[in-house]
Amino acid sequence: MKCSKCSEKAVIKINYMGQALCEKHFRRFFKKRVRKTCKGLIKYDDKVGVAVSGGKDSGVMLHLLSKQTDPEAILIDEGIEGYRDKNVENAKKVCEELNVPLNIYSFEEEYGFRLDGLDDKNLSRGPCSYCGVLRRSLLNEKSRELGFDKLAIGHNLDDEAQTGLMNFVRGEFHRIARMGKEVGVVEEEDFVKRFKPLRRCPEKEVVTYGLLIGLDAGFDECPYVKQAYRADIRDSLNDWEEKYPGTKFSVLNSSDELAGLIEDEFRGEIKKCSECGEPCAGDICQKCSMLREIRETL
Ligand SMILES: [Zn+2]
Ligand SMILES: [Zn+2]
Questions:
Q1: Distances in Å between the alpha carbon of 296 and those of 102, 119, 121, 208?
Q2: DSSP 3-58
Q3: Which listed ligand is nearest to 8 at the C-alpha?
Q4: May I ask the CATH class of domain 46-268?
Q5: Per-residue pLDDT tens over the stretch 43-93
Q6: How far is the CA of 204 from the centre of ligand 1 (A)?
Q7: Ligand 2 geometric centre to CA of 287 (Å)
């Protein structure tokens, strides 16, 4: 297979463009897309934080952002044995190579328990629900303390299309309203604005790019991920993409378009949590109500 732009050997086939690209042309194409995605989202004097996990997405993202900005990395250690501890080592290595300061915070130190220590039989939801909320909340709080103006999140096109489709199928319009290029953007000073440099990059391309730059990344999925629903949505999207190349982009575009139309109606008012003072939609934030539930079972 030859590159569609030159006579070199192709390293990847990009079906939705009907092209194959060699290493040089693919790297150029990939970097250009990420630059374009970030355009207008970061100002030259912004202090940019990068949420890293030790996995391939955040590793690739950090590589690219470290060339454009002067970022700091932030990692949340949820306390998942055999998974996060390995990935923490990975993240340390990547940050060291790129000369990026790494700030690590753990559930254990901040909340007093590890995710492994949850008593899942007596909790109303699966561990991923708690982990997602608690991690996001800690990321926001610590990013603010570290003085980040923006926080980069490593979701790729596959993640974004899955989430968009899931929200749509479930009729969760308030979630769609909060998606888009800049997520969680509410004109509220306590929210650190988040952006997703890789949201227009298919997972396959992120993996290929990571291999080409010699990224040593943890590819393992979190052992707690048993979200059957998301897995079904992922498989369906992959089938459609195979049959109708470009489907993932269309789903993302539809979701973004819809978010713009409905944001005022569904985004809701932002109040302050009566317990911790963090921004939230109700009287008490999700983090505080979850912590309360967890602590009752410990
Ligand atoms: Zn080429
Ligand atoms: Zn709270």
A1: 33, 10, 13, 45
A2: -SSSSSBEEEEEGGGTEEEEHHHHHHHHHHHHHHHHTTTS-TT--EEEE--SBHHH
A3: 1
A4: alpha beta
A5: 889 999 999 998 999 999 999 999 988 999 999 999 888 777 788 999 999
A6: 18
A7: 6
User: What residues does each domain of the chain span?
Assistant: 46-268
Nearest bound ligand to CA 279? 2
- The overall longest dimension of the chain from CA atoms, in Å, is 65
Give the sheet arrangement for strand 48-51, strand by strand: 102-106, 72-77, 48-51, 150-152, 193-195, 182-183
Helix (H) or strand (E) holding 168: helix 157-170
Say if residues 276 and 285 touch (Cβ distance below 8 Å).
yes
Going from the Cα of 284 to the center of ligand 2, the distance in angstroms, rounded, reads 5
Nearest alpha carbon to residue 236 among 172, 296, 168, 173: 168
Place of tokens 């890293």: 52
How far, in Å, from the CA of 279 to the mean position of ligand 2? 8
Please give the distance, rounded to the nearest whole angstrom, from the Cα atom of residue 22 to the centre of ligand 1: 4
Reported as a single tens digit per residue, the pLDDT across 117-158 is 887 788 888 888 899 899 999 999 999 999 999 999 999 999
Report d(CA 262, CA 60) in Å as an integer. 32
CA of residue 68 to ligand 1 center, whole Å: 24
- Among 119, 298, 131, which Cα is nearest to 225's? 131
From the number of C-beta atoms within 10 Å of its C-beta (0-12, 13-18, 19+), residue 271 rates as: middle
pTM: 0.92
Q: How far apart are CA 166 and CA 171, in angstroms?
A: 8
Interval between CA 6 and ligand 1 midpoint (Å): 4
Q: Ion ligand 1 — residues with CB under 5 Å? A: 3, 5-6, 8, 22, 25
Q: Cα of 206 to ligand 1 centre, how many Å?
A: 18
> Cα–Cα–Cα angle for 143, 227, 78, nearest 5°?
35
